[in-house]
Design brief:
By secondary structure, this protein is of the alpha/beta class. The chain is built from seven helices and twelve strands. Helix 4 (134-149) packs across helix 6. It is globular, with a radius of gyration of 17 Å.
Length: 286
Amino acid sequence: MQHSRRPFQITLAAAAVVAAGLGGGVLPTASGAEGGAEGSGGTVKQENPPSFEEFAATTHRDDKGLYIVNGDEALSDRAELRRYYDRMIADGGPAQDGSTSLVVNQGPSGDDLWTAAEAGNLSYCVSDAFGADKATVVDAMASGAGIWEAEASTIDFVHDPSADADCTTGNDDVLFSVEPTSDTSFIARAFFPSSSDYEMNVLVNPDSLVSSGWDPVNIMAHELGHTLGFRHEHTRPESGTCFEDSNWRPLTPYDSASIMHYPQCNGSSDDLTFSALDAEGVKEVY
Ligand SMILES: [Zn+2]
């Protein structure tokens, strides 16, 4: 979940490639105060895509050293960033299959999802390092998790407070950690089921979480959507902007009001609420 950065758009041949992932994604505050009117015409078009070196140089790294693409998704190193870049260039543009709101990430062996057993114990800690903000984050995580859990009985996010004092990716008592960041370029960022163990954390800027204009519960629910394997809805061609790549499979018809759709990417909902089609989509795979 990112704000304040302008999308970087490139045009390849006849297909417009909107690369929220190239040079970082966007998610301005709900008020638009930081991002302005993104999403419609506020993008830069180029005839030639950037070289990998140019792309890498403009890609934001968070304070753990991970590369942030698509606004709030983390890649661990330069090799992974290269693969991401190559896929982006090879895709050449949005999939034009008119395919039939939620889209699931595609890993090497198909859908990037947890097994039923794994989904039933998605354990996490919330770092004590949040200090005075910890209670807010704990509550937002619990309520955000509850939104998904209410739709699919397979899914159970489990907070383990006994791990909060040592809440890092290195703590094997929990699947993932929720840690504070002072990085102000995003509100929060997450990971996918196929991410490496050392990538499995949700980083949250606590100041941004409470001041973005969006409900912290919806923000955390969006991030938890990624941890369940769901991609940004606005990568679908129907959005007409903010294309990321084609490594996804649609679960429902396009939903401009999805919780996974950035509002400023031609979204029809400005509050990141969970939609009816989000409920349909998660039920299909969990
Ligand atoms: Zn996101």
